[in-house]
Amino acid sequence: MAELYYMDGKKKVAIQFSAEVETEVRNMEIAQHPIEGKITSSHAKVSSTELNVDAVFSGKNYASNYAKLVAWQEQGRLLTFAGLNYWTSNIIGNISKPSQGWKNGIKAEFTLVHIDKAKVVRGKEVVPQGKAPTPAPPPEQGTFVTTKPGDTYWGWMVEFGTPLDQLRAWNNWADRLIPIGAKARVK
Q1: Bridge partners of 81?
Q2: Mean pLDDT per 10-residue run, the chain (187 residues)?
Q3: Is residue 57 part of a domain?
């Protein structure tokens, strides 16, 4: 028996079901671009970690448990899954239900997408006792761009006239692993 739940204060709100199959999936976004007749990859980043669950909701509460699953997806509720795998900080990415009906249950497949929670500290800078705050570094000089799919050191060299070796030294990324959405110095 598997369980999907969230905590409402001190109260655990849960649904139980039989998890027939649990499959962990790690996704990587890879941008591909033809260069001189060959396909090359210039960007790669891990996009998500997911758990695909084939579930059977049965028993007297099967319909209400399935309805809760759908409602939690629509609410974007942060959930914990306890089955063969134990996953915290998940939202339901998708749900599929075959059209074949069961008399006393529902068979469904759903995907849990792991959410990395950021720790946000608001307010004043915390300074250990006995140490002075570190002054902010001076603003960086140069020209910067936000990377997007298709950006390459070669393209920046052509556009900005900066030598390839200098671009590589400033940005310190492998030629085929320029991250998308990062700040890159180009001049």
Answers
A1: 4, 87
A2: 94 95 87 66 74 93 94 95 93 89 86 82 60 64 90 92 92 86 92
A3: yes
